[in-house]
């Protein structure tokens, strides 16, 4: 994969279940604390370098923002950092929370 792909919520759920994808949530700390996808890593400028060094670059990576716009730029950047299979979640966490209310972690 030389560029990221956009992924629907249904396809993201399948990918997470089948391949244990990494989820990187790039929203602000308060929004992340109020709710995020289960198992999501809160990716910030402060921990980006550590994330790139420690995460498996061969594992599927789903980038999540508020509405699926900002995650596209972040996904493109993470491809440039060596991640081989990167997705931007269409509709972002807003759509995830609307369609998967039972799949929201808090704290």
TrEMBL record:
Location of the active site: 65
Gene Ontology MF: a single term: thiosulfate-cyanide sulfurtransferase activity
Keyword Transferase: yes
Primary location class: cytoplasm
Keyword Cytoplasm attributed: yes
Domain of life, source organism: Bacteria
Localisation: Cytoplasm
Family: Belongs to the GlpE family.
Record's protein name: Thiosulfate sulfurtransferase GlpE
Organismal lineage: Bacteria, Pseudomonadati, Pseudomonadota, Gammaproteobacteria, Alteromonadales
